[in-house]
Design goal:
Strand order of the largest sheet of chain A: 6-7-8-3-9-10
Order of helices and strands of chain A: EEEHEEHEHHHEHEHEEHH
Largest interface: A-B, 26 and 19 residues
Order of helices and strands of chain B: EEEEEHHHHHHHHHHH
Largest sheet of chain A: 6 strands, mixed
Distance between the termini of chain A: 21 Å
Oligomer: heterodimer
Strand content of chain A: 15-25%
Largest sheet of chain B: 5 strands, mixed
Number of strands of chain A: 10
Number of domains of chain B: 2
Helix content of chain A: 25-40%
Structural class of chain A: alpha/beta
Number of helices of chain A: 9
Strand content of chain B: 5-15%
């Protein structure tokens, strides 16, 4: 199941090679090796505190790897000079765990800011873009609300709208479903699937919500807290039924006994 | 003791056929009497429990048992004998022992020696100096980018900050400096009147306000008002990942957040200082007219005492004070930890650092001006 070949396949959007993440002397995860293909919905999963968000922060260049490298379309992202890395980063859209909307700006200003600073569009065009992005996530009419005035779920959706502001190649979402009720979480999953299908972007999601994982992911990596390295990579449904790593199977079955997979959501 | 008082909790260690038995009895309650422990606690987990006389219990009993079990060498959870405990207590103990100590916390904390603590503290102070030096250097570089037009921040943000640290500070700056002028005049008049030289109150107030008090008081007000606001704002932006969000859109957080704040305070401090000087002199004038110096006379006396050189000294200093306050606030905000408590600490540190920096800089300026004989 685990692919440990060291030649990047031609179509790999993101390739992580021997990545070790550490805070000072404390190693969070070592020897991570995986690939994300174009148009994948790729899930980073694992127990609480195992380093999922840390891995995401490495992927978007907010932290430097202690060892190993991260390749985007075959180019080494971690070794590039700042200017080239900036060009890479502009192709990412990131939604942070709490939404992380700029609290002193309205929703419209939040989405407009990256567009204003990175393009030379006239104000009217930017305004139209903002309305379009907000309506994609079901928030049209909320342009002039401040992040503090709307609910947590709406903040997350607005966060996704802002992440999509510059039509990113790769969308990174940090725990989009956490803290949402099951229905909102489900709607968010639908939203992610439809955005991927219609925009053709690659999506990398940090989550540990099994329902979401099985509903949307076609590829995944499991970070194992006990061994401090990756437990498995692959399609989560296959991992649940056929992974040779018991920790992965246990996680994907919520620790329940191995039952026939007929009652699985599909 | 009343007859219906509950039996006191007790734990009794016994040996039976070479096996350790722990006999538990009485009611174990938070608000009851302290448990009585009989016998020497052995260096092993009890092999069996005797609980026939055990009454009601809350968390105190499982806590007592767990502390003993953790204290002895063993604690391999599955093997710990729990025979003889009532089912509910047994369930709680199994739950508590299910995960061995510190298996998930990962980092084990070793108690540090005093020497190590001292060394760490010294290194932290040094690191603090380095971070200030680095931040000042970054500010200078950012100013360079600003002058060559490569720094990016929102004009609207800049005007908002300018308004918050300038015009909105006017009421408090007015009040404090008016009262300072008043106080200086009162104190001066008491001394000067005994020489019949009351008119020189104008000289005293004018020179003191313009050289020192106006700029120092304004700087201290802005340290508490604006420096704290900068630290709290940037600190909570950091805690909320808003600064990370800026980075991923390719903004330089330093240019975007710190530069407009430094710029705003450096522009506003001199203006506020000039205003504070005038207000302070007016305060003195009020006292002057109360003790019989006509305002026109007072004003003329002030003008002869305060020449342009004296007047410009305070304004000159205010530029540096403004930069020091803004840098303290922004530095602490940008380096704050990721929690609400950390934001509070950052704010405190920012105000303390800003006031310290202002006073230390002022002393340095006093020494320099004395050497230069200004």
């Amino acid at each position: 199941m685990t692919d440990r070949s060291h030649n990047p396949s031609p179509q790999a959007k993101i390739a992580v090679r021997g990545l070790t993440m550490a805070y000072g002397d404390f190693v969070v995860m070592r020897d991570l090796d995986f690939e994300v293909m174009e148009k994948d919905i790729f899930v980073i999963m694992g127990g609480s505190g195992c380093g999922k968000s840390t891995l995401l922060r490495h992927l978007i260049g907010l932290r430097e790897p202690a060892k190993g490298s991260i390749l985007y379309e075959g180019k080494d992202f971690t070794a590039t000079d700042p200017a080239e890395r900036g060009a890479f980063i502009q192709r990412f859209g990131v939604m942070y765990q709490s939404g992380a909307l700029w609290s002193s700006l309205t929703l419209a200003e939040n989405i407009a800011l990256p567009i204003e600073e990175n393009t030379s569009l006239p104000p009217k065009a930017i305004q139209d873009l903002v309305s379009y992005k907000l309506s994609l996530v079901g928030l049209s009419g909320y342009e002039d609300y401040y992040p503090a005035d709307i609910s947590g779920g709406m903040n997350k959706r607005a966060g996704i709208a802002r992440a999509m502001a510059l039509d990113p190649d790769i969308l990174f979402l940090d725990e989009p479903g956490a803290g949402l009720d099951p229905l909102s979480s489900r709607r968010l999953d639908d939203l992610i699937l439809r955005l991927r299908d219609s925009l053709g972007s690659t999506v990398v999601i940090v989550t540990h919500e099994l329902a979401s994982i099985f509903a949307i992911a076609n590829n995944s990596i499991f970070l194992d807290t006990a061994t401090r390295t990756q437990g498995a990579t692959g399609n989560p449904k296959q991992l649940r039924d056929h992974s040779d790593n018991p920790a992965v199977r246990t996680f994907l079955r919520r620790g329940e006994d191995e039952s026939p997979s007929s009652n699985s959501p599909s | 003791m009343p007859p219906n008082d509950p039996p006191p909790p007790s734990a009794c260690w016994k040996q039976e056929d070479g096996r350790v038995v722990l006999e538990l009895s009485g009611d174990w309650r938070r608000d009851g009497p302290a448990p009585v422990i009989e016998g020497e606690p052995p260096d092993q987990a009890p092999d069996r429990y005797a609980t026939d006389a055990l009454g009601a219990f809350d968390s105190t009993l499982p806590a007592f048992l767990l502390a003993h079990l953790r204290g002895v060498a063993n604690p391999d959870a599955a093997d710990t004998p729990l025979d003889g405990l009532p089912p509910d207590l047994r369930g709680l103990m199994e739950l508590a022992l299910a995960v061995p100590e510190e298996s998930e916390s990962g980092r084990k904390k070793k108690p540090a020696s005093n020497l190590r603590t001292l060394g760490k503290r010294a290194l932290r102070i040094w690191a603090g100096f380095l971070s200030v030096a680095e931040f000042v250097g970054l500010s200078v570089l950012a100013f360079g980018r600003l002058l060559t037009g490569r720094a990016r921040f929102r004009g609207r943000d800049f005007w908002m900050i300018l308004q918050e640290c300038g015009p909105q500070a006017l009421p408090i700056v007015t009040l404090i400096n008016f009262l300072i002028g008043l106080i200086l005049a009162f104190v001066g008049n008491v001394q000067l009147a005994s020489f019949g030289a009351s008119l020189y109150v104008a000289d005293l107030v004018g020179i003191a306000m313009v050289r020192e008090m106006g700029v120092v008081m304004t700087a201290i007000i802005l340290s508490g008002r604006t420096g704290a606001a900068f630290a709290a704002h940037l600190g909570s932006m950091k805690a909320n990942e808003e600064i990370d969000a800026l980075k991923t859109f390719g903004f330089d957080p330093f240019d975007f957040l710190v530069l407009p704040r430094i710029l705003a305070l450096v522009l506003m401090m001199p203006l506020l200082t000039i205003y504070a000087n005038v207000v302070g002199i007016l305060g003195g004038m009020l006292v002057g007219s109360a003790v019989g110096i006509p305002p026109v006379l007072y004003w003329n006396e002030t003008l002869t005492a305060v020449d342009l050189t004296t007047a410009s000294l305070g304004v000159f200093k205010s530029v540096f004070f403004g930069a020091a306050i803004a840098i303290s606030g922004c530095l602490q905000g940008m380096h704050a930890g990721n929690s609400s408590a950390a934001v509070g600490q950052a704010t405190t540190r920012a105000v303390v650092a800003a006031i310290t920096a202002v006073i230390v800089l002022d002393s340095a300026f006093a020494a320099i001006f004395t050497v230069l004989d200004i």
